[in-house]
Write a structure and sequence with these properties.
4 copies of one chain form a homotetramer. With 303 residues, chain A is an alpha/beta fold. In chain A, helix 1 packs across helix 2 and helix 8 packs across helix 9. Strand 1 of chain B pairs antiparallel with strand 1 of chain C, so a sheet runs across the interface.
Chain lengths: 303, 303, 303, 303
């Protein structure tokens, strides 16, 4: 063992530090909104950090992005339009476009420099999705877009960084915001929200997103996936206007997969759908303690 | 953020380092078998490290130990005797003794200094279990014990460190060893083996334990639990001579819990039993690639 | 190389970190004034840290303390009384008492807990000095003592931590303070001040101490010594009411050493006296840029 | 303080680690002989690392290189030719060429990739020296060159990395090698050797170089300089066939400086020459303990 040389240090909390050995720095810059580092790590391959926090890594971005996107897409009986909030790397978009039923995919990310750097240095993430004729990329504040748009969507996917004080996503997890998302969803519309860490010590945020969506949507579920490059069990909250996501049978999901020609899934498959929704007891019991997030009292992440 | 002062550095691999801020060093010593550090960490409370690898932590040792012990104990219809291999801290023993049906619990650990240090500095782990009249503590090589004993057990729990080259547990994960375990199990006997990391990049060992047990036992299952203080999804392999662990109904499990007077469970409950067995696709598909471990070609852990 | 386990991390600046491997934690506490850590380091042996900054280490505390004390003691023709400001470990006192001419040594340190911990865990530092009948130990604010005392001293030694905002030594490096020191010095009195780092990037403080003393004393000198455990070239400023320290001949110094029976010197000897005063060009040229420190505008150390 | 992000970790010994915050990676590669990293550090500006060991940094490479070159150049009464062994960055060459008396400067470095990377990414180091018409650059093994050359030189400068096992400089510090250097020196020839750390704990190598040169040359001196970016007091050994380097008067040195038109010195000046040779007692007393290095028993650096 000889851990000399170049390392990237992530301070998860004051009390816990991760050190990643760096093979190469591909890009390092400061956009208007955040510090962007794209590194080639010995442990995880190409990896994106925003404000020194790991975002997605080559070894398992497919796990994160399939876990985020596919349950929602499959929950909708026939998604033709999708809206992605955030998702700068383009991999969320890539997952949406795997569904042949999709006619239009709008992605709204506030940080054009992040999108550009991702297209250049992480092309496997978007894998051509930005060039797909069904894609519309908008560089803007997602809240503004959602409150102003006239369009409706079958699926909305929230792929945002956690709401930091002064950060761009503070008012994108509130009841007011989700009410408006509900307005622009179609009849069987589905919303999924990446909801941060699910672990015992840090799951307030996930519980609060769950609780907030429960104020608005008839069917809300929460599921967890272990993301190796985050070292974390991760939470995703899904809200549906009609079908209950966790009750969908493997048979129905298989029919949907076949009819939409969905291929190249490496993590999600219908047979694993149900299992995602088995959550650990500490999270299960925490759900009722989440608080309703509002514009007046939003969630501020402080790890 | 001011991460100055005392830290404990765990080199998970050459490419990934964890740093834990240390509040207090409770014990630090070198036993005949391993380096033992018992620290009070800001992130996790009191924590045991063996050879600089984290073993169990105050915030979630209950998760690890309930996850290891309870599924096996509940799989057996009425466990009266249990054998624990390893488990130096005494928490595995504590979990076994929660079952009122237990008349005898034998624990065999090779490292008496570890047991002594755990009793002194981690008394919450054993919580009186070493003083329970049903307990028999043997400081010896578990392989020797198992090959020489005349006794039979309803449940055998393997709570060992991973098999390092030159370490004490190298021949405690082989087909020959498990064959002998099978011999000393009673008719409905159950064996559970802590099987290391379940994560995408490092699950060979778990798959190989699974494969090896499959050579011997009629019903083998594998389940995973996220252990926050390990930053890892963890694998446990369970082998049963009769009942299939994952098929047990919540109803049956609840009856067993009540009849045995099992209380104070903080992580495991019958209603979560089934969910544990939903494993991620990468592990599921890896199971067939595990190899049968033998005395001639045992597993050597090299992270 | 296998740098696992327990380490102490000193953040010298945001841009430079030192990591010391820890063999044992001897003492760790928070006094009224500062965080105190006494560690046994693999690199340096027993080592004292105050507020996470290294203060003195077994391998070279003799270098630091002889360098601080001996040039001043030898500059005075016959020191009978000495006053030490700070110097909690007792090693500065130990060096003073090596001079047989000394009849009285007063040490004023604000932090009684530091003195107690040093006596208990670093007994080699004071080496009996606290029990010497010539010693008077006063736990109090040195500024208060100096302004109130009626006594006079032949040698005054300032062995204080750098003046941090809110720290106890902020007003112990000002012109007003040194004016009062001048008042309590005898006719041939000598003052020496540990003056922090002498290195190119961080020598403002040393230059300012030099400049401030120059406002008051007829002969002021500055000398540097490399302290291995600090990784630094260190500055000491010496002010004399009569003899010029750097002009003293080896012959005169040898006579003084013999007549006072000074023994057991491991770093300082008369033949090295002159060489100490050769300072590097960057420090030499910086001296004129130091500013006069005053109570109204004291120095605040921010590395 | 927020030491997140990109850092370079230098393991000085198993027990002491330096961490440097990285602004930018300028170059990172593996030549035939060594790992080369050229980084822009927040603490030191542009910095060269070879095999993860710091070599020279923007804030004080002038100190290192003037300290290495100027005392030797000024010791020779009129240097017309100089040979540099190693010195890949070109700054040693730059210092030589400041002397107007120089008609020819030969530099022999084994690592052409290092020279190329230095010219490209550290142009301030050579500052045009490689394009000077007096310069002859040879990419070859210096030992081979020295044993085969027919030329003679007034000054020879050894600017090599420490002799690591298996490294290229193992046989470039031996008596046999220096004997041959003596052969190719002119009558008043001077040799200077960068001799590694001078600190109390690690000065064997410096003492051994001093001792080895003492077997061959009539006048040998050793001097030390604190190099901030190395965190170290550094040793240089100088051997002269005629004039004793440390006895040269400031007056003579000033005349030489003027007559050769030496300008732009930032660290060395005649008035500081004498002071360099005052070495600390621990090094002084260690000199007699150095051993004579030979081809049969060379020095191998193991920190």
């Amino acid at each position: 063992m000889n851990p000399e040389g170049l390392w990237f240090r992530e301070i998860f909390t004051d009390n816990l530090i991760f050190g990643y050995r760096v093979k190469r720095v591909l890009y390092s810059g400061q956009s208007r909104f955040q510090k962007i580092d794209i590194l080639d790590l010995y442990a995880y391959g190409k990896t994106l950090f925003l404000d020194n926090k790991i975002q997605s890594a080559q070894i398992d971005e497919h796990i994160y992005h399939e876990a985020l996107v596919q349950p929602a897409m499959f929950t909708h009986p026939e998604p033709k339009s999708a809206l992605i909030i955030g998702g700068g790397e383009g991999a969320t978009l890539r997952e949406v476009l795997k569904h042949g039923s999709i006619e239009k995919a709008v992605m709204v990310d506030i940080d054009g420099e992040l999108v550009d750097a991702s297209r250049k240095y992480l092309p496997e993430w978007s894998d051509g999705a930005f060039d797909d004729s069904r894609t519309e990329l908008i560089i803007d504040d997602a809240r503004k877009y959602i409150f102003e748009t006239d369009e409706k969507f079958d699926v909305v996917i929230s792929d945002l960084t956690e709401p930091l004080e002064g950060g761009p996503s503070k008012y994108l997890f509130t009841k007011e915001f989700y009410n408006r998302v509900n307005d622009i969803l179609t009849e069987s519309g589905v919303l999924v929200v990446q909801s941060g860490s699910a672990v015992q010590m840090y799951n307030d945020f996930a519980a609060s997103v769950y609780r907030t969506l429960g104020e608005i949507f008839p069917a809300v579920g929460i599921y967890t996936v272990y993301i190796e490059s985050f070292q974390m069990l991760w939470a995703f909250t899904i809200a549906s206007r009609k079908e209950r996501p966790e009750d969908l049978s493997e048979e129905v999901l298989n029919i949907r997969m076949k009819s939409r020609g969905v291929e190249n899934l490496r993590f999600y498959l219908p047979k694993y759908h149900r299992g995602l929704f088995y959550i650990p007891r500490y999270l299960d019991e925490k759900l009722s303690e989440g608080r309703v997030l509002t514009d007046a009292d939003p969630y501020i992440w402080t790890a």
